[in-house]
Queue: 4 jobs
Job 1
Amino acid sequence: MSNIRGRFQKGADEAAAKYTASISFDWRLYPYDIAGSIAHAKMLAKQGIISSQDAEKITRGLASIKEEIEQGKFQFKPELEDIHMNIEARLIEKVGEAGGKLHTARSRNDQIALDMRLFTMETINYTLLGLKDFQKALISLAEANKEVTMPGYTHLQRAQPVLFAHHLLAYFEMLQRDVDRFNDCLKRTDVMPLGSGAAAGVAYSIDREFLAKELGLRQLSQNSLDAVSDRDFILEYEAAASICMMHLSRLAEEIILWSSSEFDFVELDEAYATGSSIMPQKKNPDIAELVRGKTGRVYGRLLALLTTMKALPLSYNRDLQEDKEGLFDCVDTLLSSLEVFTGMIKTLRVKAENTGRAAGQGYILATDLADYLVRKGAAFRTAHDIVARLVSYAAEKGKSFSELKLTEYKKFSPLFSDDVYSITVESSLTARDNIGGTAPQMVAKALFRARNIAGGN
């Protein structure tokens, strides 16, 4: 459908040409396309396939085209279909016949494979920076509230007291797994496909190692059919992005709950909330809601490409044009979500008095009472049953554990004595002093570890 007519006697139907054109979105690949072309021209000259004079003209022309694009002076032409042909046509305009030699020993199939890999590699580096900033924001908020207690939840029911910092560090761990996934994706993206040609390789004496070195790539693709049709690295990025967005969405959901009047655990900065068009009292957590909403958008991009790839025979098929818009949107969504979420966390105010009060209410120390009986000699299942009946009794009487008399405790087990009143939120926290626990000394160590990891990412 491009301006390369070859054996065709007439041009493409206007609607068909418009349908197949990708320049409206693949224009953003221009820096990678130009970098790949400059490296290719140098390699062709090095191998004596074109003259050094032609290679110089080509590299100068490409450099000037890059300037034109960055200065907004370049005219992208839909009839030229894609970024490759737009740049090549402009190159020929600028340097004449030498520009037509650039495509020697190269196909648009291995050219776009290179562009997408270079784009994805740079994107991964930006993503890792965004994750690092977000982790640092979480650490700062945790350190500022390292003595704050809150209820830990299971099934969204109050379960056991935890430190607020411990809760935040759970998200640090999630994000660190995201860091690992993106780094892992980077290893498999860092592959040089040029030299694969359209499908079978190229019939010229090229130097692929030289190309890889020029482009800063560490590996060479080992099969030409695979190299031009592989989009696993994009799927990996989108899969890692989907998991990362899921992590953001989970924290977004908690912030939405915590900022409600029902919880009242945190207050959002006005820069990260919105008002209502009709209800003057409202302070809506729209940023968190949008991050939660955009998570499904990123999932959709992954599923779309998986669906595109599932029945493609080797090697290149035009279906692969569908990899770009989804990836670009996935990248833009993830990076902007990380940026805005980081700002929201940096400005979040924790209402320590409210979280602490919630941590001490109800029967949140029930597990500690069961552990108390175990230390007195009871089997855990027996202790669990005793405390369960004690909770039912206390709830019926409208009393907290601290309000029960010792005689009431002893109705359920003779193992209870005066030291039962030493069980508090603080003792509960302190008792959980294993690695990964919420004890203050363990959380302090976890914060130290997190700072070291975030500083080294």
Job 2
Amino acid sequence: MYRLELTQSDLDHDAKTYSGSIMKMIETDYVLFDEEGHSDDFDKFVEFPLQSRAHLLSQFVNGFDIDISSLNSMEDYVYENINCLKNCSETYLKALRNNIDPYVFSVTTSILFSHPDYSSLAAHQQLLYGILLHITNSIRRIKSGNYHHDDSESLSDKIYSEEFRVAKEIYSHFEKKYDFNVSNREIDFLASYLAITGKYVSQTSPAILVIAHGEKTASDMVSYIRKTIAGDYHLDAIDYSENMQLNDLLELACIKSSELNQGSGVLFFVDMEPLTTISEHVIRTTGIPTKTIFPLTMNGLIQIITKSMSAENDMESLVLANPAAQNYHFREDDRDDFIRAVTERIIAKSVIFIDAQKIVDILKVCLDDALQMLRIPYSNDIAVKYLCHCSIMIERVIRKEAWDNRRLKQYLSQNHRLLDTVEQGFEYAAGSLDIKIPQTELVYVAEMFEPYLQ
């Protein structure tokens, strides 16, 4: 007899997943093989994951087989049903497809796709399969006699009149073929399903653009997401390598955002704070609504992608749902390291003839003065915006190429106190560099502080 003691590393991926359940089936803490290399106990390790997966798939599919006469609220059930379907994987999607009657599939899709309002369902297989599976199950119950016929008057013909007409058209084919009558409640359910599904299909989800430092960091994360998460989402990546200039990154972000945007905006997922300002540039340049989430984590990205596929989530709710941001806390002792990194990686590559370190040292004093006068707490977010913008601004002022601003008079009349405070904050820079910063430039800096004012 041969004796083999199994360790966790000896088990394959599926066996690891189910090891707790399998171990209870084996009486000893080791597996014995006979002289021919066979072991009944070891066979359980091989067979159990497959059996368990099949059981889970069966449970999932059977969960959609429900007698609607038992429902208190059909619409609540439909919403739960759709939310579950929208996020199911390819494996579960295939299991749904295998349980749909071929005749039901043919007749129902033919009718639905002949109507312009429902032709878009072809691109949403999860939702389409939910409709087809319910019809399949309802016909099976009727044919088997396990059916509670309800003679109550229809309600959806008044609420969802068009959907009711389509639902009645679909069921009339099966009534003729199988010689039975479908209750109004069953038609009401299908009409509700079509109406609510239509809302989900017509509402586009926010697109997501992942930006991270490194040669392939963002691309690798997006590639993994696409391989593991099935569903309708819009996702792309930008790798911010050392060889990429900031202006090139900003231009690429605008191009990617224009390609990704489906009408609900673009959510930027970035790995560190210098990149949080990119979304603001995209808004100004393209007009596309954007928001930023940081710091970038794989777990956070997976959760946001999953939530983005629900029609109930817009960009605001996705930002609030980000688990990484909820656990992120700025540490005061990281400030100098952060500013040093911003200076080396961004500002030094953006300015042309002034010394990046010198200008940052001056602007740090100006920033602290402005924050103190405005009673705004320091954050890396405001620091990177201020230092990056103002270093380039000062270079323009020195070269006498200051930007014009047609909104100066209006802004001055409405925000003169804020503008005066910002100008006072620049006194150290003006004295040190012997320059005068025009108010047309100060407006842009003042607007930068507005979101942080209490």
Job 3
Amino acid sequence: MKCVNNTSIIRRNRIFFAIASGVLLATLAGCTVGPKYHAPAPPQIAAQNYKESTVNFQDQPGWKVASPSDGMLRGNWWEVFHEPELNALEDQLNINNETIKQYFQQYMEARAVIAEARSQYWPTITANPSWSRSRSSSNLTNSSQANVGRTSTLWAAPLDVSWAPDFWGKIRNEVREAQYAAQVSAADLQLEKLTEQASLAEYYFEIRGQDMLQQILDQTVAADQKALDANQGAYDAGTGDYISVVESRATLQGAQAAATNVGLARAQYQHAIAVLLGKVASDFSIPVKPMIYTPPPIPTGVPSQLVERRPDIAAAERTLAEANATIGIGYGAFFPQVTISASGGFEASTLKHLFNWASRTWSIGPSASQVIFDGGLYRAELHQYEATYNADLASYRQTTLTAFQQVEDALAGTRIYSQQILQQQDAVKSSQQYLQMEMQRYNTGVDPYIDVVTAQTTVLGNQETLNAAQVDEMLSAVELVQALGGGWDVSQLPSPSQVAAKVANANYQMQH
């Protein structure tokens, strides 16, 4: 007879779980309230090329933009500059940069939130075993004589199950919201990587520009020292005047002060690179190497591709999807919440009888709750979510407009700096010729030495301007790459299912 009862129990349990599974599947396939999300339409772009990439390029010498047929940058975009030392630094940055690590952990945090939201799909099961021993009062006149002054023991092993089926899609919207938020975090991570990589490239070219400026000033100091020695010798021999000595000394001292000052900017750029690489500035240095760079043609693609290449635009669009899911959550608040609760277990006065079949207890029953009056709270929250969506839509459009502005700005900067460099090179040659002629006039006694000083100052000023323009041209090239999104495109953004995938361990590598 006992065996028959156990078989009956197993059969009833199977029926119960079958019904519960059916209800669960029906619930997961139920309706979802709230607006369906549609990605905003990209801006209508009539131009086949960026405006600044075609402005009088046939008539103007200087830097040339790559043809749209050359495709787009991919992967390690900094390799387009063909600078091995920069490549090595960028590789270190991608591994050791602390800010990138911070954004990566925020991305992992966002993925964990998805798992938290998905956990609401399932019942909550709670075990609460307990033991108590109590004694009733002997002075209770209205109590049963059998219970007066009695000591009792209670062993209990209850199991409580509570489940709120997702009839209206509230949980599904919360999961979608978390998935979109994780995608936003993934795009923010890529944007931060690009920002740090571009900063490193800019600091590197700034240092090389400072090294070249140091060389220019060192050569100027050497030339001014020779001029001072010559004027001092002529004065000592009685063939020169003392004012020429003073003028040449003042020129030398000014050049020496300028040469000393160059070290400050170089040191600060070097320290900034150390921080980007996750290193202590005191233990890091970059060798001096004066170099002049000319940026290569950078493939820009066509304007219609820009929306798919910028991680900040991708983040803005995913933020919009997240806001739309939040509206769905707001709609779900207007519907009743149904909770199915069940509890069962064993209770007995002695431990040895606790798990006897006669000691079983159970209860089951659904409940529903619906707010009748909340002073307009839910409706106000819904209006808030809708306003947030509209604000995010405007932010998406503004981000897109800013992206096109930044590309055109960088193209204009690179093109114009390249033309300025050619003109400034001519100015340097002319000023050097002017200095040679003025030295000849001074040596023949036609002009005073102050005219030589003026010519020297002109040469130095033109050389400094040329060096600054060459650095600015490289910085504009880096800014152009950054404005184009580097080597990234939206196909690299993880899908909702990918961000929701289980992560094996907390030490998940950033490269993934």
Job 4
Amino acid sequence: MSEKIIETGTLSRKDFKLDTPVKWCAGCGAHAVLASIQGTIPETGVRKEDVVFVSGIGCSSRFPYYIDTYGFHSLHGRATAIASGIKTANPNLSVWVITGDGDSMAIGGNHFIHIIRRNINVNIILFNNKIYGLTKGQYSPTTPKGSITKTSPEGTIENSFQPGELAMGAQGTFFARVVDTDPKMMKDVLLKAAQHKGTSVVEVLLNCVIFANEVHKEITGKEVRDDHQVYLKHGEPMIFGKNRDKGIRYNCNKMEVVTIGEDGITEDDILVHDATNPDDSTHYNLVRMGLPEFPVAMGVVRAAESTVFESLMHDQVTNAQKHSKIKTVNDLINSGNVFRIDQKS
């Protein structure tokens, strides 16, 4: 990356583009994510030299090679651990983790839940194509039960992870979901993730044209997307449908889909989305919603305030340095129960 310092506010997408070829398959949804992030970073107000992308292993994890920032292509499943160290060492950096459903949910699962639990101020972009693409089509932790893959020729027999459910269980403060076919939604959500103080997780429902082509077609298809997605916006009712006449409400403490205008249902009966309440059980219900009974929740499901790990850690270090009698290594060596041996001449 160029050593030239570019003042905040003067950056554009071209400042983050490289001339080198992008080696993802034609039709891969990752291209859309790359373009959206390149368009989002300039709007965050962060200096170019303060942006770092960290990835693990997998198709998604080639991302640092395709964006003109500092980057770290790390080990399988360890991107969140390395990003934790980078952010803790230098809280002024804007740190982004690029990972996949296999990289983060399988070998990296432990690191994934603990960075969320600690609430370190990084942004995790999770490419979910529900398959292992780089290793040629094995089923992943998010592959739907019963799917035929190269490692499950008779159908998977494992229950699949819901990334949003896992994030909620780890006390996550920010979770959002987008699709690779809606760049406007993606950019809007990515900007909100970047502005969030704490760990933000954005799940991207992404197409793998080779090994899981059209895996999200029941959600992203032009003929069905309006009826099969509800785009959540804080403070607005959960309304969806081609005619904007469907909504979600609670009935006897259970969520249900209703049609506005039928059975006396009005817009006032529809749930209003509150993304900011960390104790709202509705968030958990929203990330679990799915076809055929419910639309899939898109947008920012949760964006709650909480303490941020690296801020508290640096406060502790500063306080300890201020009040401790031990200021140097020599102080440490000569502290406590020590004795001295004098040499005889």
